[in-house]
Amino acid sequence: MLERLNHAMEHIERRLDGDIDPEELARIAGTSVYHLRRMFSALAGMPLSEYVRRRRLTLAAAEVVAGRDTLLDIAVRHGYGSGEAFARAFRAMHGVGPGQARRAGATLSSQPRMSFRLVVEGNSDMRHRIERKQAFGVVGYKARVPLVHAGPNEAIIEFVRGIGRERLDGLAKLSDQEPEGVVAVCDDLDPSRAEGTELDYYQAVITSSPVPEGMTGLRVPAGTWAVFTADGPMPQAVQTLWRDVFTQWFPSNPYASRPGPEILRVRPAGDGTEGEAELWLPVEGTAR
Question: Is the confidence at residue 287, as pLDDT, over 50?
Fold first, then answer.
């Protein structure tokens, strides 16, 4: 998988001065656009679109400094419809405008070319199982929250606090299948997975029951799920697990992520700062 992903990275380099078709990149990588974007974000630490933008602006900076072409010609060549749009993007990355960059001594940023390799430590075992579930319902309370990659998500903490213990206890009684109990469900995430983008977050149960008044429901079709477990300090253990799934497990196994909600069950231990987590991710088999 990583070898094919590196072929896709080479394709990006050849097309930086033209259109880059995500469908073509996914075909080269041997996966779907959806999985390619998620895989890249987990491996690179930035969205695929951001990497392409930064690579183009890196090349554009060299052309600006060389001074052989007008700034407008450079802007158009790198996909900007106007000099103003190019100047804004250039300044956002490099800290100076393209006009200033042509002066001697300007300090510019650079986005190196990326390539990927799999490092196997051999000292950890990713506990997982594959489950096939029939269609089911997610029932509970919903909020739109920002994505946070590391540390507490204050928006989620405030949302759950506002629901209250009494309503959560009542919600738990509706659970009638795995994963049991009150779970966190994330859906409708931005494909880039960029920090701060928004998603639908549910405090909910997995159930066949109808949606009670005052709650929100989400219908999930039948499909295959990869279920991962981890324990340790929360939320760090969950955030590390999610990262390792995409950087280690997916490249090593014949599965790709597919659209669908992500389900997390956490069982607190001790004073609540630690716990055991079970993460359910929708997957589909891929040809090797």
Answer: no
CB atoms closer than 10 angstroms to residue 248: 17
How many other CB atoms are found less than 10 A from the CB of residue 173? 10
Beta bridge partner(s), residue 220: 136
Give the model's confidence band at 180: pLDDT under 50 very low, under 70 low, under 90 confident, else very high: very high
Sign of the dihedral defined by the CA atoms of residues 198, 46, 285, 206, in that order: negative
The predicted structure's pLDDT at residue 119: 56
The CA–CA distances, whole Å, from 216 to 110, 173, 225, 241 equal 46, 16, 23, 28
User: Residues with Cβ < 8 Å from 128, sequence gap 6 or more?
Assistant: 226, 227, 228, 229, 249
- Give CA separation, 198 vs 12, 43, 186, in Å: 27, 20, 10
> Taking a C-beta distance cutoff of 8 angstroms, is the pair 55, 46 a contact?
no
CB contact at 8 A, 260 and 186: no
Task: State how far the alpha carbon of 184 is from the alpha carbons of 40, 109, 146, 215, 278, in Å.
Answer: 24, 39, 14, 15, 11
The span from the CA of 87 to the CA of 71, in Å, is: 9
Helix 33-44 with 48-66: angle, nearest 10 deg: 70
Which of the two residues, 105 and 265, has the higher pLDDT score?
265
Predicted confidence (pLDDT) at residue 121 exceeds the cutoff of 50: no
pLDDT given for residue 30 in this prediction:
87
Instruction: Give DSSP secondary structure letters for 10-66.
Output: HHHHHTTTS---HHHHHHHHTS-HHHHHHHHHHHHSS-HHHHHHHHHHHHHHHHHHH
Instruction: Tell me the residue type at 283.
Output: V
